[in-house]
Structure of DUF2029 domain-containing protein:
Amino acid sequence: MAIGHSWTKRYWLALLLLGVAGLLMHISFWSTPAEALMGHDIYYIWLEGKRIIVGENPYARILAGDMRANDKYATYFPLAYLCSALVQKAGFPEFSDWLYLWRPVSFLCHLGIVALALKQFYSRGLWLLGFATAALLLLGRWSIYVTRVHHLEFAAIFFLLLSLLLLKKQPRVALLAFSLSLGIKQIAIFLLPIYLIYLWRNSARDRRIADVGIGFLIILSVPVLTSLPFLLWDAEGFFKSILFSATRLGSSHIEGAPSIDVTFSQQFDWLVGLRAKLLMLLLMGLVYLSCLMETVGLFVASAMVMMIFLYFNSVLFLQYFLWPLCLVVFALVEWAPPWVKQDPG
């Protein structure tokens, strides 16, 4: 009993210290004026909400484009845009109002990521390593970047990590959390096969098809339900907007570190769009096959898939680095054996 009580006190003390440090870091960016963030995604999320309120379809603008050059199209599922519209209809119409509400939510999600990481490491008795890892996720450069530009990453990653942690004991809740992560930002869509393979492998033989089908519907629930009005409104615009991330120009971001398809597209002009993703998808397919045929942990497989995305996707943004980083640290503790205190006698 004393050991468990000591564990709890140590965990909450560490989380309190990290929470204070994280809050100070976040607050240091909360004074950034709204005008300075108008070129970032968080502004365009607010703007799409404003367009919805006045009756404009945020996904229709892409129909005038060529599916290559970006004009700040609405490329996310509509959950964030609908939240923006709801906030504005609730009496907070200005972009600065949206920021005042979003900043503490983003901080709480960031602290949630830290709390989950700390708990996983502490459950293995890795006190010092756990604290160092939690501080890395809290105060590292990629977290600072996401905090500075107010991206959606912390919220999407928190629900993804929560989903993976709950999948074995509370699968339905875990699948709903994954669905919410995709609804916020769909980068983790590449992990969908890992979830379906897990459900297949861990279901009774006579229940496999039903369990996978139900699980698939739960995963799709948030993105599909929030997307239905826009699908009925303009299905072509919606699908083209969502697919734009796979076809857009790959050399327009962080040109000093091009992916292999961008490098070779200078010699082979046909190596663009979906064709340029074939190597990335092939490598991800090997990870999926490993999940099906080998004993691979959920976090290990997920970390590998997101690492492949980071290294081979044609377009690279700084916020992408945070996704595999969070999964890698959980993969490390996933392979660590449970800590058992040895009796000195």
Q: What stands out?
A: The CA atoms of residues 12 and 143 lie 22 Å apart. The first helix runs from residue 2 to 30. The mean pLDDT is 89.
